[in-house]
Amino acid sequence: MTDQNRSDSEASKRILERAYGLKTTDEAKTLYRDWAASYDQQLEQGLHYIAPAGIAQFLANALEDRTALILDVGCGTGLVGGHLVGQGYSAIDGLDFSAEMLSQARNKQVYQTLIQGDLNTELDIPDQTYDAGISCGTFTHGHVKADALDEILRVLKPGACFACTIHREVWQSAGFESKFAHLMASGIAELESMNEQPFYKNAPDDGRFCVIRRL
Questions:
Q1: Of the candidates 8, 7, 16, the residue with the CA atom closest to the CA atom of residue 203
Q2: Most buried by CB count within 10 Å: which residue of 28, 34, 44, 195?
């Protein structure tokens, strides 16, 4: 590894540590404002981020209709959207709370519509709008809690699937384990698959890659 590559890798690790140390929404907004321009390079090249491709593949396995209208929840700069296009999907909207990240996503031209919204509040989206949803890296440290799943399921049509990653360290602490149990027990959704996989190449299994279906 060259000195430049080593320096880039260390910088990527430092900003990831900052992301995992987030405590409030305001802290998250500041981080992603500062990170937006270098996000793709640092994650994909510096840290070898493979989760977007992985979760896009899970959705592709569950959703045969390539014309389905998909909501990319916490779309960031559009990494997942790019992989969805690569899977043949043509109707994708992106949702994120960071204007700076949405600006980067807009440049990729993979989304029909980009929506600025906070999952900790009610989204300005009508009920039962989307045929499917996907989310990568949103359910992690210092971001949204498990109750956001209620709002996501609200905007999905009955029968729609939702593929998402959940960081292993917040699975219990942020209420995802109990929320999943409630959704399944109450007949709101069913769990189609759950796999523990790494978010980064050659890393430990960082989280759960889940596919649930709204009933």
A1: 16
A2: 28
Judge whether 97 and 166 are in contact, CB under 8 Å: no
| pLDDT tens digits for range 9-35 | 566 567 666 667 666 667 777 777 777
- What are the residues facing 72 on neighbouring strands? 94, 134
Other beta carbons less than 10 A from residue 201's beta carbon: 9
Query: What's the CA gap between 38 and 143, in Å, rounded?
Result: 20
Buried b (16+ CB within 10 A) or exposed e, 130-146: bbbbbbbbbbbebbbeb
Instruction: Indicate left, alpha or beta for 71 from its phi (over 0: left) and psi (-120 to 50: alpha).
Output: beta
Q: What's the rounded Cα separation, in Å, for the pair 194 and 128?
A: 24
Q: Which residues pair with 193 in a beta bridge?
A: 211
pTM, to two decimals: 0.88
pLDDT grade, residue 2 (50/70/90)?
very low
Using alpha carbons only, how large is the chain's radius of gyration in Å? Answer: 16
Do residues 42 and 8 make contact, with C-beta atoms less than 8 angstroms apart? yes
The Cα-based distances of 171 to 103, 109, 124, 141 in angstroms read 30, 33, 27, 10
Contact 176, 210 (CB under 8 A): no
pLDDT value of position 33: 74
